[in-house]
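Running this now, will post back.
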Amino acid sequence: MLSSLTTKLALKKAGIPSDILDFQQQPEKSSKSNQDDQQPPQSWGSWMSIRSLPLTVQPWLNPPPPSVAVGRVPGIGDKAPVDRERRIVLGGRRRTLLVFLRCVGCAFAQKTFINLRTLSNRYGDALTCIAVSHASEQATQKWVSLLGGAWGVRVVIDEDRALYAAWGLGTGGMWYLFNPTTQVQGWKETGWLGEKVAGAIQRKGLDDKKVPKKAAALDDDDEDEDGPLTVMGNKWQEAGAFAIDGTGTVIWGGKAMRADDVMELEDGARILLA
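Update: finished.
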């Protein structure tokens, strides 16, 4: 009984319905005709697929690779990677605090975003604050609205994770997510909004994830129809934060060391505005 209770609590904390592993309930057998009764039972794969799992489970699955190869994390003094799609334009005398978020609904992403929003409100036009989300635009907008809005933060959608890859942010391993520090901090946090975001999306009748335009343009035949949905982002995606000065040079930041590492954005802002 204790084991069952512990499992249910852990699933609830992760945003996964507690009955997801309950396979005792069998679908009612159709009795339309004798012919239906004589048909062989359908296999597991005919009614169960990865994409049929709840939307809150999808972020825990292994994500598809980004549309470009994961590069090197820019170091202090390096020129910032150039976004060919010009979603993010750095330099030009603008001092920018650039944050790459974890998946929407994550309590650590929430703390990071709120910290960035506070800095944006404090420094106004002196500091350009940009948050990059790899969840869908619909999920990101809902999550941001639950947090009270973006205020002065510009939110950029990077669902194919090309920007993440260009800045050296790939997917973390087991230790990145399940190390003791992250687990302890995870139990302390209360800002887990994954279920609310997923519920809002499902109420709007989301049928399937649309393929990012860039990924589709690269190769329509490479789409994995059986892969996990990335509407909510992915738990394994690495986060990061960088401060870029007016010449387009990185002067602070790097990759988050663990999933719970929200990074000291105040340090980046202070160095930029010194």
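The radius of gyration is 21 Å. More later if anyone needs it.
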